[in-house]
Amino acid sequence: MNDLEKVVALAKRRGFIFPGSEIYGGLSGTWDYGPLGVELKNNIKRVFWKSMVYERDDVVGVDAAILMNPKVWEASGHVEAFADPLVECKTCHERFRADQPEEIQKHESIHKGKKTEWTEPRKFNLLVEAKLGVVEDKKDKVYLRGEITQGVHVNFKNVLDSTRVQIPFGIAQIGKAFRNEITPGNFTFRSREFEQMELQFYVKPEKGESQKWYEYWKAERMKWYVSLGMDKKKLRFRQHEEGERAHYAKDAWDIEYDSSFGWKEFEGIHNRGDWDLSQHQKHSGVDMGYTDQESGHKFLPYIIETSGGVDRAALFFLINAYFEDKDRVVLKLHKKLAPFKVAIFPLLANKIELVKKARSVHSDLKTQLSELVAWDDRGNIGKRYFAQDEIGTPYCITIDFQTLADDTVTIRDRDSMKQERFKIKNLEKYFKKKFNH
Ligand code: GAP
């Protein structure tokens, strides 16, 4: 099994990610996050928000509606140009993206010996349509947002008027997006429903200024992934070629990850120029201009965008963290991302004093850390360690007979497997420092 297959199996077995609507045979390109998966995703979003909004003075957040007036998508160019080239195999009528030669070749190899005939490529729009309204024949066509971005740009004026932000400043957002992907695949890598975490950063339109911020955000985003434990050697930047860029982008670079299915896009960093604001100004008739408070000069800002997938990050963090180490599988997830921060074990499940003491440590730590703390009293200690290693819990605490005598416990470290004895009264301070509270 390659890394991806191992992670798919682990994700199902331990409750990270399940196929969407599984008991009905699934729905292609949709995934459900289980008890551990929701924690991993929430932790990714929490760390993103902290670094983008709480730790900066020049970024604020919004949470815009998924359903928007369809005119938004006409103005943004998505109705016209948000499309992939589609080809169909004339023998079995399966559809593929013409710009993905590996998948075309894979399919051709199925028709061994015979030449596969393909239809001419045609543009296939990725926007997912829905109907809104209560009267059947008067329902309006709407789109599920194809990118979360437009909800930010249509609120540019609202944010300016309701806060004290001044250019350069950014608006961060996290939320669901939907795309009618022609070939969803590689687990959650390409889904039809997924979450994005984005920053739209508004700057003066001068070339030097927008380029400065573009380089700044490229570097920041790369640093962010590395700071969360991504292997630097498996990340690289790649600039989009002419003809590859999305309709809104003046310049586009991807952070790519070296996965078992090739170097793949992790996050896109785009210079959107004044595309979005000028298009919304034109189509809505609302003035989107920004007036510089010092010079009185009025202009349409340029937008530097960082756009990452939360699900894609969860997948690549899982693959990056997966290790087989002698007789154990261990997820070396960064402490900030691990679903459970600590696990508590009474040495023996049938010794009432041990269980009572362990329950009290468990309940205290949960409150003190405001984090998930696991409880396990099944099987022997070795098995419990391995069960926690497999889901990435950084620390395990065992309450044993010595605990009853001197109020100390053993703390076992996931990565080094070393054990130390610690006073219960010092646990709160110790873990708060570890988890940077
Ligand atoms: N607002 C810009 C934008 O949406 P994008 O390159 O189309 O740009 C940004 O998407 C990120 O969203 C990607 O780098 C990826 O992480 C994530 N993403 C895009 N399509 C996806 C899909 N079908 N499934 C999962 N994640 C996806």
TrEMBL record:
Signal peptide residues are none
InterPro entries assigned: aa-tRNA-synt_IIb (IPR002314), aa-tRNA-synth_II (IPR006195), aa-tRNA-synth_II/BPL/LPL (IPR045864), Anticodon-bd (IPR004154), Anticodon-bd_dom_sf (IPR036621), Gly-tRNA_synthase/POLG2 (IPR027031), GlyRS-like_core (IPR033731), tRNA-synt_gly (IPR002315)
Q: Does the keyword Flavoprotein apply?
A: no
Annotated keywords: Aminoacyl-tRNA synthetase, ATP-binding, Ligase, Nucleotide-binding, Protein biosynthesis
GO cellular component, alphabetical, reads:
cytoplasm
An example molecular function term from Gene Ontology annotations: ATP binding
- EC assignment: 6.1.1.14
Q: Does the keyword Nucleotide-binding apply?
A: yes
Aminoacyl-transfer RNA synthetases class-II family profile domain spans which residues?
Answer: 3-339
Q: Which GO terms describe its biological process?
A: glycyl-tRNA aminoacylation
Pfam annotation, one family? HGTP_anticodon
Q: Which family does it belong to?
A: Belongs to the class-II aminoacyl-tRNA synthetase family.
The name on file for this protein is glycine--tRNA ligase
